[in-house]
Design brief:
4-stranded parallel sheet; 4 strands; Protein-Tyrosine Phosphatase, Chain A; globular; mainly alpha
Length: about 400
């Protein structure tokens, strides 16, 4: 996205004219947007386009909440000031912000190339879809004017004297984005199982974090008219208010939230910690009540949530667990290679952090599910992998004979 921004800045310089913005409000907004998007697991793109495209009720609720709070905030701020986020602070690049943006852009490119260079060709991820998506997304933001906070605030601000003063650009941008997302999701749903439940949610259910996080994001969005996507573009462009106010506050918010979440989700160390295995009378759960199973769920006791590992290479998916509320389920695509990546580990941990306890982790044979539970145990309890392996060996778990899964758990 940052490289595309640099190229478009050269080709279409007139599209990067930003209006004045306040450092103070951008700092407050950056913090709220960071915490809000982390807490609710999405923003205008995640919930607004991807979530609505999958027809996920959780995303519909999130969009309703952050749009409401964004509209209220922008309208109130507009009533208090002569113009939204009025200030004499300049949003056009300065020498300092330009240098900072170039250092960040080319530094990140260099780091990406360096990390890729250390892998063999066969282990290289397929960057093509991500690159094409990033280029199109960035170009769309720039051409539609979504990188200009005043275009976004023109939509959120309902405190206008005449209807003609209201800016409806965001309606068309998000509307067409949702339509394309629906079409793409339905296509992949019919050609290859996308790994989502019937509702289309990766993680479903409504909780306090979703409501509060969406409200916080809405307030931050209404203050500055900036969300994570335009933030990246404006940082690459060198907008000083984004570079020196919004971005630092955003990073601070993410770091503090990650620290708070790590402490909050840290399970207590009890005598049952680490006892994970296929279902039998002697099986003991993790200390925060996570169980594992294969496709045979006949002996599964009552659980509140379910995480299914759906094999990419097979059309068959694990059956639903009887008695589990459909709103408390998550299905995640895995393969023999993808299950060993850091990205998959992060996605699995994120799902397990959110799902209510007790939780069942399930796959076709039970081996991958048990390895996932072990990995989560090691990560949350911060225990050494040797102890995790000892528990697994004592319980006679089959995954310890899979070298890839063993290395994956050890590395986490």
């Amino acid at each position: 996205m940052m490289v595309t921004t640099k190229l478009m800045e050269v080709i279409f310089p007139d599209m990067f004219s930003l209006q004045p913005a306040s450092y103070e409000l951008n700092a407050v907004a950056g913090f709220l947007v960071a915490v809000g998007t982390a807490m609710s697991n999405g923003c205008t793109s995640g919930h607004g386009i991807c979530g609505l495209g999958r027809m996920c009720p959780r995303s519909l609720i999130a969009v309703s909440i952050f749009c409401f709070f964004g509209i209220v905030t922008a309208s109130v701020v507009n009533a208090l000031y002569s113009t939204p986020i009025a200030s004499s602070d300049n949003s056009e690049p300065t020498d300092a912000s330009q240098v900072a943006s170039e250092v960040m852009t080319f530094g990140l490119v260099g780091a990406t190339v360096a990390m890729s260079a250390g892998r063999s060709y066969k282990k290289q991820p397929n960057y093509a879809p991500a690159i094409v998506s990033a280029v199109m997304f960035t170009a769309g933001l720039v051409v539609s004017g979504m990188i200009n906070p005043h275009v976004v605030l023109g939509f959120l601000n309902f405190n206008v004297s005449e209807f003609s003063d209201w800016n409806a650009t965001l309606c068309f941008v998000m509307g067409f984005g949702v339509l394309q997302s629906i079409a793409a999701y339905q296509y992949y749903k019919r050609t290859a199982d996308p790994g989502c439940g019937p509702s289309g949610c990766i993680v479903s259910g409504v909780d306090f974090d979703l409501v509060l996080g969406s409200a916080m994001f809405g307030v931050g969005w209404g203050l500055a008219g900036v969300c994570p996507g335009p933030m990246i573009v404006n940082v690459a462009y060198g907008s000083p208010t984004t570079m020196f106010a919004f971005l630092p506050a955003f990073i601070l918010g993410r770091v503090l939230y990650a620290y708070k979440t790590e402490n909050r989700t840290q399970p207590s160390t009890s005598t049952s910690a680490g006892r994970v295995g296929d279902w039998d009378d002697s099986t003991l759960p993790l200390s925060d009540q996570i169980y594992t199973s294969g496709t045979d769920t006949s002996s599964v006791p009552k659980v509140k949530s379910w995480l299914a590992l759906v094999p990419m290479e097979e059309s068959e998916t694990p059956p639903c667990v009887p008695g589990v509320d459909i709103s408390n389920h998550s299905r995640i695509l895995v393969s023999s290679d993808s299950v060993n990546t850091q990205e998959t580990a992060d996605e699995l941990c994120k799902a397990l952090d959110i799902l209510p306890r007790p939780t069942l982790v399930q796959c076709k044979s039970g081996a991958r599910a048990t390895a996932v539970a072990r990995m989560y145990l090691a990560k949350k309890l911060r225990v050494h992998s040797s102890l995790v392996m000892k528990f697994a060996k004592d319980d006679g778990e089959s995954w310890i004979h899979n070298s890839k899964l063993v290395q994956w758990v050890k590395k986490r």
